[in-house]
């Protein structure tokens, strides 16, 4: 029924214009942001899950860095142990040389001087093998590294529990027979036994370091895989399908334009009805 006091058609057109405009704005926000959820009301449950996944991904990124740092520490310690092993190998050669009947006591004095210098060099290697100012071969280093998302997801880099580390840290005390030097064939024989024991300790320490380093390396690979999977899951929830969002925007734009045209037509209807009274 045509009336001039209440423009029902205009009210209806305006309501649909607001609806279509909101749809157009939401679709445009998705296209512009690249996110399917631009406000909590879009998907409250999905936003909660995605937020948790996003925080886990961030923590795993740091966990991967932590594992890398642990591996670097162990590599540094192994480098120091390798140097000590080389020095002990030379000391063993000196013991053998001093035990040769072709060597005079004077020459043994020279050999003994080098042997003593190498003992000092081992002490120097122990004190200078550090990471970020922390001594690694002191026989006391032990540190936990977070390698997951929970407080309990830790792995320990332990360079203290194995007795070999303590022996290497204070070789002169652990192997007092090294102090006899190689100034005589008899002393050289005694020192040789001590050197062989020290070499065994270094080998045991390097094996321990290698085992721990291997564990950190494998765990780092697992962290990277988990980070990739969680990131993909978070993307599936949060990221917008750009093609779909663009399609929604185009559809809402057409409907908005149609509502604008309908509202303009509805607003002109009362004026057209007044012309009937003329």
UniProtKB/TrEMBL annotation:
Record's GO cellular component terms: bacterial-type flagellum; extracellular region
Source superkingdom: Bacteria
Organism: uncultured Alphaproteobacteria bacterium
Location in or out of the cell: Secreted; Bacterial flagellum
Flagellin N-terminal domain boundaries: 4-141
Transmembrane segments: none
GO molecular function terms noted in the UniProt entry: structural molecule activity
Residue ranges constituting the Flagellin C-terminal domain according to the UniProt record: 192-277
Function recorded in the entry: Flagellin is the subunit protein which polymerizes to form the filaments of bacterial flagella.
InterPro entries registered for this protein in UniProt: Flagellin, Flagellin_C, Flagellin_C_sub2, Flagellin_N
Alphabetical UniProt keywords: Bacterial flagellum, Cell projection, Cilium, Flagellum, Secreted
Gene3D superfamilies: f41 fragment of flagellin, N-terminal domain, Flagellar export chaperone, C-terminal domain
Protein name: Flagellin
Signal peptide range in chain numbering: none
A Pfam family annotated for this UniProt entry: Flagellin_C
Similarity annotation: Belongs to the bacterial flagellin family.
């Amino acid at each position: 029924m045509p009336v001039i006091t209440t423009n029902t058609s205009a009210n209806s057109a305006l309501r649909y214009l607001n609806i279509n405009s909101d749809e157009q704005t939401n679709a445009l926000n998705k296209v512009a942001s690249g996110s399917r959820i631009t406000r909590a009301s879009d998907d409250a449950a999905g936003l909660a899950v995605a937020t948790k996944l996003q925080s886990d991904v961030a923590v795993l990124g740091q966990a991967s860095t932590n594992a890398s740092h642990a591996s670097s520490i162990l590599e540094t310690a192994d480098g120091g142990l390798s140097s000590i092993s080389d020095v002990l190998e030379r000391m063993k050669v000196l013991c053998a040389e001093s035990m040769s009947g072709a060597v005079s006591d004077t020459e043994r004095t020279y050999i003994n001087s080098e042997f003593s210098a190498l003992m000092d060099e081992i002490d120097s290697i122990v004190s200078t093998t550090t990471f970020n100012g922390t001594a690694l071969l002191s026989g006391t280093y032990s540190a936990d590294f977070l390698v997951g998302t929970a407080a309990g997801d830790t792995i320990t880099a332990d360079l203290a529990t194995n007795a070999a580390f303590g022996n290497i840290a204070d070789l002169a005390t652990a192997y007092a027979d090294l102090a006899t030097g190689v100034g005589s064939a008899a002393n050289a024989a005694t020192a040789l036994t001590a050197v062989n024991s020290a070499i065994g300790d270094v080998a045991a320490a390097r094996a321990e370091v290698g085992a721990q380093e291997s564990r950190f390396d494998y765990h780092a690979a697992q962290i990277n895989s988990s980070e990739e999977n969680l990131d993909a899951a978070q993307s599936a929830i949060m990221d917008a399908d750009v093609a779909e969002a663009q399609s929604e925007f185009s559809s809402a734009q057409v409907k908005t334009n149609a509502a604008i045209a309908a509202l303009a037509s509805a607003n002109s209807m009362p004026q057209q009805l007044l012309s009937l009274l003329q």
